[in-house]
């Protein structure tokens, strides 16, 4: 009897962790998708205050002007004075502009890696996510496709998210988004399969770089966003979604 109780308790804990029955997949939050092993790294630019960052940018612009041939002798003298004053002010805060410049490429690569690396914990797992679906041109084999993003407006009125915050979704035959940013709950097998496409969204041709691929088995639409009815399913949104479904839209290969 005691062993039976322990088994039931373990099942209760597992169900509570997943949030839904096991068949529905592990409930995953967007913040869990990046690879945690590459998220912590040295980034001296991140430690700058807004004022310090502005001073660094100003110093770089002044250096660029002085390296060129433009400007009168009086203007160039003024730029030199401003440069010395700006770099001296930064030096009082122990900020070395030359050292920051030497770190720029390394920091850029670290940021790219942090934004593109997917969490291997979920590779090949059946998961459930909630997000906003963007209709996309179908795959060459005719399979319906959408992109899932964590926030309303991404890739249209907002920039695209980092690749590990975008999921390319191969949909089943039962559903495709009827408008941009339709809120959905998707369940399926998630794999780390980086892809890069270009397609027309709202503001023109948009790069769609996704770290993950989700083969959706179950799709549930949700009519509310943060407790409010989501009714801005404009005619333009519907026509654009229909164009992707019927004509394939504009796309580029990997």
Automatic annotation (TrEMBL):
- Pfam families on file: DUF3299 (PF11736)
| Keyword terms of this UniProt record | Signal
Signal peptide range equals 1-23
Q: Could you identify this protein by its name? A: DUF3299 domain-containing protein
The scientific name of the source species is Ruegeria meonggei
